[in-house]
Amino acid sequence: MSTPADQLQxxxxxxxxxxxxxxxxxxxxxxxxxxxxxxxxxxxxxxxPAIYLQIPFTEAQQINNRAGFAMNNHLGDEWRQQFTASVxxxxxxxxxxxxxxxxxxxxxxxxxxxxxxRPYEVRLWWD
Length: 127
Known about the structure:
The chain is about 30% helix and about 25% strand. By secondary structure, the chain is of the alpha+beta class.
């Protein structure tokens, strides 16, 4: 059975490279973060790929806890901001052209290049 990191690697490899985007490097740097995310979405635009990582609020929302019976313990704002900072740092190391953090949920505020106060989803985009 493949892990979420393995699945990410397969999707990123299928997209292929683009400008500053290297799918193998992206899979290596983001693979360890995937299990702690709530959801990972990969889109491929004409201008390049975008990877979205949603930040969980509870342990039960994390990808690595979906198969089991994780407690619904809140992860806390500090953990969520730290996780968001790790994703942002990976995006910088991967030379993403845009790194944005949507705040929320349900709020339209976008923060560029940093976690913000209410991180909900980080977008890494290579155009």
